[in-house]
């Protein structure tokens, strides 16, 4: 198990949701922490507030792209390819996860109307794959996962 996988497992064991794990990983890669941001990501957990809607790995991945390439101040502009980056993530998620699971909602992925409350092996794979896809999308846009421009 890689160090990154171990860290994701550790976070899941601590009770963090998919969306939170992705942002924690992104923040840590930048040498940062932000408990308010991690707390806010709870709203995406379990498919948006445990409603079973859009998977937290997908919405968390979009937020992770925003952390690296979005707009944060009035003076700042998002990366010129930000919208394309998010669209690429969504298309990939629909193809990779949605096609296999019958949809991109948390309840589709877990089946039988279940909603994520604790880490599942299926969720772990999806979160890991989503993190890797986000890294590739960022790299293709000239952004290292550490946050440095290439």
From TrEMBL:
<dbReference type="InterPro" id="IPR036280">
    <property type="entry name" value="Multihaem_cyt_sf"/>
</dbReference>
<protein>
    <submittedName>
        <fullName>C_GCAxxG_C_C family protein</fullName>
    </submittedName>
</protein>
<dbReference type="Pfam" id="PF09719">
    <property type="entry name" value="C_GCAxxG_C_C"/>
</dbReference>
<dbReference type="InterPro" id="IPR010181">
    <property type="entry name" value="CGCAxxGCC_motif"/>
</dbReference>
């Amino acid at each position: 198990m890689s160090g990154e996988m171990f860290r994701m497992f550790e976070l899941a064991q601590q009770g963090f949701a998919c969306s939170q794990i992705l942002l924690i990983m992104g923040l840590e890669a930048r040498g940062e922490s932000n408990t308010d941001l991690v707390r806010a990501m709870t709203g995406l957990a379990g498919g948006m507030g445990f409603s079973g809607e859009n998977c937290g790995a997908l919405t968390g991945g979009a937020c992770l792209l925003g952390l690296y390439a979005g707009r944060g101040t009035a003076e700042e502009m998002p990366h010129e390819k930000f919208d394309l980056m998010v669209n690429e993530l969504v298309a990939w998620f629909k193809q990779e996860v949605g096609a296999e699971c019958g949809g991109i909602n948390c309840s589709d992925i877990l089946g039988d109307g279940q909603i994520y409350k604790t880490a599942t092996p299926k969720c772990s794979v999806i979160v890991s794959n989503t993190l890797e896809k986000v890294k590739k999308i960022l790299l293709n846009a000239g952004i290292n996962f550490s946050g440095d421009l290439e």
